[in-house]
């Protein structure tokens, strides 16, 4: 017998003592040295919750379309004008690496 339980996303935990704390989803603009492009994004912020673990956050998600060369520094800005993070695209499927968190609240 398989038992499935529904758990709200805000309380999901995964193996290394991290807890999902926020999801940002919407439209925005990615700006880089040679231009800017309108994008859609979904970003999940995970925070360390285990007692005795080092504090820190992990950011996951996607940004599409990939609009600047891979590994070129860029900034993601939300539709309301908040600069969310500095990043670079790591692959052509929308994966990214955060180089600085600016306003992920």
List the helices and strands and how they pair.
Elements: E1 13-14, E2 18-32, E3 35-48, E4 57-64, E5 74-78, E6 83-89, E7 96-101
Antiparallel strand pairs: 1-2, 2-3, 2-5, 3-4, 5-6, 6-7
Brief descriptors of the model:
mainly beta, 105 residues, seven-stranded antiparallel beta sheet, disordered N terminus
Description:
Helix content is 0%, strand content 54%. It has one domain (9-101). It has strands at residues 13-14, 18-32, 35-48, 57-64, 74-78, 83-89, 96-101. It has 105 residues and is mainly beta. Strands 1, 2, 3, 4, 5, 6 and 7 form a 7-stranded antiparallel sheet that branches. The N and C termini lie far apart (40 Å). It contains no helices and 7 strands.
What is the number of strand segments?
A: 7
- Computed over alpha carbons, the radius of gyration is 16 Å
| Largest β-sheet summary | 7 strands, antiparallel
Instruction: List the secondary-structure elements in sequence, H or E.
Output: EEEEEEE
How many H/I helical runs? Answer: 0
Overall structural domain count: 1
Q: Which runs of at least 5 residues are low in confidence (pLDDT < 50)?
A: 1-13
Distance between the termini: 40 Å
């Amino acid at each position: 017998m398989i038992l499935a339980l529904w758990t709200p996303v805000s309380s999901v935990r995964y193996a290394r003592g991290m807890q999902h704390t926020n999801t940002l989803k919407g439209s925005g603009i990615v700006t880089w040295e040679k231009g800017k492009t309108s994008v859609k994004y979904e970003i999940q912020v995970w925070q360390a919750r285990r007692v005795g673990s080092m504090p820190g956050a992990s950011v996951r998600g996607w940004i599409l379309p990939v609009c600047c060369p891979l590994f070129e520094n860029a900034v993601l800005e939300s539709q309301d004008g908040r600069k969310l993070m500095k990043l670079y695209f790591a692959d052509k499927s929308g994966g990214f690496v955060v180089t600085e968190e600016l306003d992920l609240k």
